[in-house]
């Protein structure tokens, strides 16, 4: 029979600071991961629930990386028809970015806004939109976020059969 010396936990020489420091580092990393995950979920909800059509471009290549449901419904094209495509290859964006040269202008300006942009949707109908785009960094790369919303008919009187009249309240002091 062999006998092995037994040790009590109090006999072990583990530096308390090292153990505590390692646990604190793991706890901080876990908390940071949870905050990042919560932030990603909030972003995704905002992106998907937005009442604007939104798509995200890789700022270096012009390839569409993401598109929200509102834009696919507004234009009548599937998500798959957007993803992985160069923006200039999608005919309905020709007025915004018709070619790589136009995309280079977008990259250089970092911001473009059109108040009256006519687009054709999947069934050929024209829709007027307001278009905004912003270039910003995400980690080590840059993206361009593009947003579209239907333009208000008041901006296009020739297309509006119901003129908009602004009515103010009369002063109550009279």
Provide a compact summary of the structure.
The chain is α+β, with helices and mostly antiparallel strands and 174 residues long. The chain has helices at 16-49, 69-75, 79-82, 100-109, and strands at residues 53-58, 64-67, 111-120, 126-138, 141-150.
Task: Please describe what this structure looks like.
The protein has 174 residues and is of the alpha+beta class. It is 32% helix and 25% strand. It has four helices and five strands. It has helices at residues 16-49, 69-75, 79-82, 100-109; strands spanning 53-58, 64-67, 111-120, 126-138, 141-150. It has a five-stranded antiparallel sheet. Strand 4 (126-138) and strand 5 (141-150) form a beta hairpin. The longest helix has 34 residues, at 16-49. It is elongated, with a radius of gyration of 28 Å. It starts with 15 loop residues before the first helix and ends in a 24-residue tail after the last strand. 14% of the residues are buried. Mean pLDDT is 78; it is low at 161-174.
Question: What are the defining features of this structure?
Answer:
single chain, 174 residues, alpha+beta, five-stranded antiparallel β-sheet, 4 helices, 5 strands, 32% helix, disordered C terminus
Order of helices and strands: HEEHHHEEE
Kindly provide the radius of gyration, computed on alpha-carbon positions and rounded to a whole number of angstroms: 28 Å
The overall pLDDT average reads 78
Poorly predicted regions: 161-174
What topology does this entry show?
Blueprint: H1 16-49, E1 53-58, E2 64-67, H2 69-75, H3 79-82, H4 100-109, E3 111-120, E4 126-138, E5 141-150
Antiparallel strand pairs: 1-2, 1-5, 3-4, 4-5
